[in-house]
User: Fold this.
Amino acid sequence: MRKLFFTILGSITFFFVSPLYSQSGAPKPLRTLIIDPGHGGQDPGARGMHSTEANVSLAISLKLGDTIAKAYPELKILYTRTTDILPGNLTDLDASLKYRANLANENNGDLFIAIHCNSAGRAAGGWYERRVVGKTPYTKTVKKGKKTYKQTAYKYEYDNVWVENKAKGTETYLWAIGKNDAKINSVAKNDFTGEIDSTSTLSLPDPSDPAEKVRMLIYTQNFFRKSLQLADYVQQEFTNSGRVDRGVKQRNDKGIWVLQATAMPSVLIEIGFISNKEEEEYMLSPEGQKEIVGNIFTALKKYKEKLETKAAMSAENSEKK
Ligand SMILES: [Zn+2]
Assistant:
């Protein structure tokens, strides 16, 4: 019985795995790439002074896809949206999130890259805040019982002070499933930026549900390391271009729901703070966009090459056996 089970398992594995090999016998680990520009349509995402996260993410996503297509014409690239709409032209945010994941899963994606912008603070650019700008001492008389004392008090001067919105840099998110890795920072509740404002009411996997538990295990075993590898490369490339590196972070909340819903390695890249005047201008400029796209492309190239080297090595090993 046990033998029969493994024979069936072997045939199934062969059936699914064999089309992945090209004629030369070398496996092609990356065949279908899903690019997911965050937000869109009625959901503008975070707002900058001149633009929205939805539009900046779309511009970068399209340019990224073009660059990848030129370098790897054999690679199938699918976008969850290519215009300023919610994916699938849907009007419901949750439905549009599901659409993103379904598109990736139904097309047997090998990698899912979501592009977003970060945001922090009260307003894009900065804001006025009432602050103490000076104090003048004076002497006042305090009465305590029958005695009186002289005491120094201060007269405060207030003014509306311009507070620059300074948060900046890039970060890449991974779906985290109870996985403690020293290399990755788990984001503390008070350090949330960007995707926290997702209005999604979609529920997250429930670890007490056996079916969900299996799905989470599959993600951990098959996709976590790969996602981490790509995320590391992305942050390295941003750092090489002089960007502020906020690191690879793992989160498991609704803001990155789509990462756990895709049955493939997946990352969510926050390309910069749209709330920071300087970074918004950089993300809107042709030079900035070229650099960001170049960074992500180089990271993807490294990721792809590493997968291919590993796959070629394992094919060689199995041939020797
Ligand atoms: Zn976003």
